[in-house]
Design brief:
The complex is a heterodimer of chains A (885) and B (271). Chain A is built from 28 helices and 21 strands. With 885 residues, chain A is α+β, with helices and mostly antiparallel strands. In chain A, strands 2-3-8-5-7-6 form a six-stranded mixed beta barrel. In chain A, strand 11 and strand 12 form a beta hairpin. In chain A, helix 8 packs antiparallel against helix 10 and helix 24 packs parallel to helix 27. With 271 residues, chain B is α/β, with parallel strands linked by helices. Chain B has a seven-stranded mixed sheet, sandwiched between helices. Chain B has a four-stranded antiparallel sheet with strand order 2-1-4-5, with helices on one face.
Chain lengths: 885, 271
């Protein structure tokens, strides 16, 4: 009777842990699973991290106060109306998550205060914590009353303990002075005052600062304005508790704020009613920057998501191919067992299923390790260290599904290998299909991708006002090109092998052995070269894109800012010449280029200091900067000018400062620091320009020009130095801030992700070589045993192994790197994140990456040769020969 | 003799291998019967078709033409899946190299459990019986690399016969064994065959031929003779062809013969 026994077949019982007996197969499965785990988990983790980083950067831009929720309204400053509203706002906002204690502000309209010595215009202000956040200059302990700015105190000639008088047509109040503080507009604003920037600093160039505040305690402010019908604004700014907020937290908070807004706008609710009593003219406004921050962050994530998912998918497919290669390797290692099982009637699918079971645990382990690595990588090197709750768990589940797919692929490949070997009569169709050069098919796809890229009118990377979006073909093209062209080159290399073999017939023993050994497994060796070439190619291609984009974006950012830091100052004469900065002074005004009246920027510079303080890249112009600057200083009736972004006849005219000024174009350049997108620039020597303008009857200075200090120093250093010299700063711009702005950050994140996977691909190349070395070990032992009998020395054998490995790696590297650079050169002109702003993409070869990879590969070759020789030396020649017969 | 035992037969078996430029006729119409309980040796020079015949018998290959029946079941029309099932349930196969016959990570006991599990037999007591007869009791918990070549080949036969297959096919099983081990193995094989298994072995070993119940001599893909009970009989195939031994062929340099019939038989003489 044939029945199914109840006990388990030992072959199945041992399957789950069986690969422990096959370390090389185990290693390849685990390595491939790790890569699969990393690439699968990295995409959602990176996207979460990117979303959180984008939110954090956006919130950082707004500052903690603006990033939360703000109520503002306008009405009479009366305590009786304010207090109920204040109480309701606090109650209702208590239900919103992630917001902290509010900063409450009551600010009057501009009002006059006076002393016997004079009058001054101020705005009465109560703001929670204001007194703690001013730079106190003079006070006396325990004095009650208000704080006035130094400029106000100077005008009124008062000090602590004195009184000022606040008077309206209905009442007159004396307010004691508690102290004097430094004018807020005279120094960079702290985070506390940042939300009031536009209320403190007059952004219009060369205009006086806005009216300073007289800071009072809340009740004293109500007492001072009692009965005066004083109007003012009221606001409650609820900051975020934690500036590092995840996207889901931000969305939850924003939703709660939305409900709060509805409640506030409904006068039938307690909150809405209390605010309505306080509000005049319907001026109630409930704002949050979270909405804009979330929208901008989502745009960034959307821009990143497509490419990241595509790269991740490509990497997962590569990892599955590696798993498949591990299956082939497993089958070739256990061919004898497969043949025996087949003779015993075990079908290829039975064996494949068993192979899947064997691979399940190692693959799962590798997947989990990969998942951990992905978390670590994203937390350490990703856009932000925070990953939203639930994403890591979802990523693990996704990894799990891909591991299941990997295990199935492993089993399928093993089964297919067994089937191919044991099948009875291969079909002619299959043999015919095997002869088709697959590389041609892939190359046709690559050519189609490139044609699409080349034919497009729009840049394939765009970052105008929105986060950069990357054309998918930019990523698909190199994969196809590398795989197809690499395959063809390697196929051609295979044709050369017979000639190499003949050439090595009379060569030294190590060379003869290396060539013969490689030629003996031509198929496997060439497959390793092809795979390694593709992996190296991806690494070099991604490195080239990252370096090229980084260099280009950096140049564009510096073009926009002019230097590392550009600071608009109210009066450039306040900056001492010996200030401890690498700086120069420029003035940016405007003019119309005649006869077309095209509006252009005019950059007036100081040729003696410009090179010291401004950013410069030799690719901007055909002549050295020094020569250009020297030519700007010239006598005559015409202003020598350099034009950027526009061409005009050598002798032309501009209309500036109300007059026509003759100019002589001494050079037209591709780019110049300080340029704005889509706006040409004329560069002049400030003194020459002024001289010619005066001669033409124009004003000596351009009233609308912005005086700027450009410095090749960190913005913090520059601002601190200017503050020490009491230079009034209007605003500043830093190149690094431009680089981190939304249009560029998605680009860096995407290419960074590509490069991280490129490094993994490089790792794959090494795994492939290790597998190759391992798979050849048995035959190597036999050939070594035979060769030793014929007098081969161990050192010659070691050199032969080293030569074989170095040749494989060097050929792979040369093919991969050359093809990658070719692919990058083909698309580089299209990678312009901001085409409206020069310079054009600056192609950069990642020299450090290439050199480092070379070093690693040579190390692996040498170490591999040494390890193989060690293992070969330990073998028993007699045992090897017995097993080999 | 097993009550359900049935013969394995091949009739007019032809096997042609095609290459890119030519075809090789490996077998040219083989007729043979392999009876349960009998050990059959297949001999012949290299390239005579021994291994091809064995592979076809074992269901590892298909005949180009002709019929092969194992246990009464015609195999020539079976699908791959059915051939696997046939091998799993009815046929045991022993490769030439001892190491090829055992799974490296299973002990001898596990190899036998694996084999009996494949044949869907519930009774594991048969394992003990076979092991005892093969003298492997003390090696049951050893893995293949811990066994000698002779022990490996005995274990291979053990896993081939557990589960009571109808046919055991062995490709030169003693080729890599020393004389003593080979002799011991053959004694065991003879004994196992007595249980009703048809054993077919290809060999160059005179000892195997001497111990076999019957010997089939192949030459150039055709059956030249069948030796049974010390008698050598030429084989006449279904088309009436008979293959002359080389020494007889030398008498016919023109490759033409004259046949003369009488009441005792046929006389073949040069013309």
């Amino acid at each position: 009777m044939r029945v199914t026994p109840r006990w388990i077949d030992p072959a199945w019982r041992k399957a789950p842990l069986l690969l422990l007996r096959f370390p090389a197969i185990l290693g390849s499965v685990v390595a491939a699973a790790v890569i699969l785990g990393v690439t699968t988990a990295a995409a959602p983790l990176l996207l979460s991290s990117a979303a959180n980083a984008a939110v954090a950067q956006e919130l950082d831009q707004y500052g903690p106060a603006l990033a939360g929720v703000s109520f503002s309204t306008f009405g009479f400053i009366e305590g009786d109306k304010f207090r109920p509203a204040d109480s309701e706002v606090l109650r209702a906002t208590g239900a919103v998550p992630e917001v902290g204690e509010p900063t409450t502000m009551i600010k009057s309209a501009t009002t006059g205060i006076e002393t016997r010595a004079g009058e001054a215009q101020v705005r009465l202000l109560f703001r929670t914590g204001a007194v703690r956040n001013i730079d106190k200059l003079t006070t006396r302990r325990g004095l009650p009353g208000g704080w006035i700015a130094r400029s106000t105190a100077d005008a009124l000639r008062v000090g602590p303990g004195d009184h000022v008088v606040l008077e309206s047509f209905r009442a007159r109040r004396k307010i004691p002075i508690a102290g004097i503080y430094r004018d807020l507009a005279s120094a960079p604003l702290s985070d506390y005052w940042a939300p009031l920037t536009y209320d403190i600093i007059n952004e219009i160039p060369n205009q006086p600062p806005l009216r300073p505040y007289m800071i009072l305690p809340r009740d004293q402010l109500f007492d001072a304005t009692q009965g005066m019908d004083q109007q003012g604004t009221f606001s409650w700014d609820f900051p975020l508790v934690d500036r590092v907020m995840t996207m889901p937290q931000a969305i939850r908070t924003e939703a709660a704020i939305g409900e709060l807004k509805l409640e506030a706008s409904d006068p039938l609710t307690p909150l809405g009613g209390a605010l309505a009593d306080l509000t005049l003219y319907g001026t109630l406004d409930v704002r949050t920057s979270l909405t804009a921050a979330i929208a901008s962050s989502e745009e960034t994530v959307t821009a990143v998501e497509g490419p990241v998912r595509l790269i991740s998918l490509a990497a997962r497919i590569v990892a599955l191919v590696v798993i498949g290669a591990a299956g082939i390797f497993a089958h070739s290692t256990r061919r004898r067992e497969a043949r025996l099982l087949s003779a015993q009637g075990r079908t290829p699918w039975w064996q494949g299923t068993k192979s899947s079971v064997e691979a399940a645990l190692p693959a799962a382990t590798g997947g989990v390790v990969g998942w951990f690595i992905a978390i670590e990588l994203v937390q350490r090197a990703g856009p932000a260290p925070t990953i939203s709750a639930g994403v890591t768990r979802d990523a693990l589940v996704e990894v799990g599904w891909w591991i299941v797919a990997a295990v199935v692929v492993m089993g399928f490949v093993y089964a297919f290998g067994t089937h191919q070997e044991t099948q009875i009569g291969a079909s002619r169709l299959r043999r015919a299909v095997a002869k088709i050069p697959w590389e041609v098919v892939v190359l046709v796809l690559a050519a189609a991708s490139f044609y699409e890229l080349a034919a497009r009118q729009d840049p394939i990377v765009q970052a105008t006002d929105e986060p950069a979006s990357i054309d998918m073909l930019l990523l698909a093209f190199p994969f196809l090109f590398l795989a197809g062209m690499g395959g063809l080159v390697v196929r051609g290399l295979g044709r050369l092998l017979p000639r190499m073999r003949r050439g090595a017939a009379t060569a030294r023993p190590w060379r003869y052995l290396a060539v013969r050994r490689f030629a003996a497994t031509q198929k496997a060796g060439l497959l390793v070269i092809n795979s390694a070439a593709v992996a190296v190619g991806i690494l070099v291609y991604s490195g080239t894109l990252v370096d090229t984009t980084a260099t280009t974006v950096r140049a564009k950012a510096h073009i926009l800012a002019g230097s590392e830091t550009a600071v608009a100052v109210q009066n450039v004469e306040d900056v001492p010449a010996d200030i401890d900065l690498d700086w120069t002074h420029v003035a940016i005004g405007s003019a119309d280029l005649l006869p077309g009246e095209e509006r252009i920027d005019v950059l007036s510079l100081d040729p003696t200091t410009f090179a010291r303080g401004a950013f410069w890249d030799p690719t901007f112009a055909d002549r050295p900067l020094g020569d250009l600057l020297a030519d700007l200083v010239r006598g005559g009736d015409r202003v020598p000018v350099i034009l950027a972004g526009i061409e005009t006849p050598r002798h032309s005219t501009v209309e500036a400062r109300g007059r026509h000024l003759p100019i002589e174009v001494i050079e037209t350049v591709r780019a110049w620091p300080g340029m704005s997108p889509n706006k040409p620039m004329m560069i002049v020597d400030g003194e020459t320009y002024t001289r010619v303008a005066r001669a033409a009857g124009a004003t000596a200075t351009d009233p609308f020009a912005s005086d700027q200090v450009w410095a090749k120093d960190d913005p913090d250093v520059v601002l601190e130095a200017l503050e020490d010299e009491q230079v009034f700063v209007q605003y500043h711009r830093a190149a690094r801030d431009v680089e981190a702005s939304p249009p560029f950050r998605s680009l860096f994140w995407t290419f960074g992700f590509l490069q991280a996977l490129g490094v993994l691909a490089g790792g794959l190349a090494l795994v492939g070589v290790v597998l190759y070395v391992q798979s050849r070990q048995a035959s190597r032992d036999v050939s070594y045993a035979l060769a030793r009998r014929m007098g081969l020395s161990p050192s010659s054998h070691r050199v032969a192994i080293g030569a074989e490995l170095v040749a494989i790696l060097a050929i792979s590297f040369a093919i991969g790197a050359a093809l990658a650079l070719t692919a990058a050169a083909l698309v580089v002109d299209k990678i312009d994140p901001l085409p409206a702003l020069p310079p054009d993409p600056l192609f950069r070869v990642p020299a450090a990456l290439v050199a480092g990879s070379c070093g690693v590969l040579v190390f692996v070759a040498v170490a591999g040769a040494w390890l193989v020789q060690q293992r070969t030396d330990r073998m028993s020649v007699a045992e090897v020969m017995r097993l080999a017969t | 003799m097993r009550p359900d035992a049935a013969e394995t037969t091949c009739s007019g078996v032809v096997k042609i291998y095609w290459t890119a430029t030519s075809e090789v006729h490996a077998l040219k119409g083989i007729d043979a019967v392999f009876r349960p309980g009998a050990v059959t040796a297949v001999v012949g020079p290299s390239g005579s078709g021994k291994s091809t015949l064995l592979r076809i018998l074992a269901g590892l290959d298909r005949a180009t033409a002709g019929s092969v029946r194992v246990g009464g079941r015609e195999t020539s029309g079976l699908s791959q899946r059915e051939l696997h099932a046939l091998r799993r349930q009815l046929v045991g196969y022993v490769f030439q190299r001892p190491a090829d016959n055992l799974i490296g990570y299973l002990t001898v006991r596990e190899q036998l459990q694996h084999a009996i599990r494949a044949r869907r037999r519930r009774d594991r007591s048969r394992i003990d019986e076979v092991v005892e007869r093969l003298g492997l009791q003390h090696r049951m918990n050893h893995r293949p690399h811990q066994l000698s070549g002779g022990e490996q080949q005995r274990a291979a036969f053990a896993q081939a016969v557990v589960g009571d297959p109808l046919l055991v096919v062995a490709d030169e099983p003693t080729a890599e064994l020393d004389r003593a081990s080979g002799t011991a193995l053959l004694e065991t094989v003879e004994e196992l065959a007595r249980d009703g298994i048809a054993v077919v072995m290809s060999t160059h070993d005179p000892d195997v031929v001497a111990r076999a119940d019957r010997t089939l001599l192949l030459r150039h893909g055709a059956m030249e003779a069948e030796m049974h009970q010390r008698r050598s009989l030429s084989v006449i195939d279904e088309a009436g062809r008979i293959q002359l031994p080389p020494e007889a062929l030398a008498l016919f340099p023109g490759r033409r013969a004259q046949l003369a019939f009488d009441e005792t038989g046929v006389r073949i003489t040069p013309p």
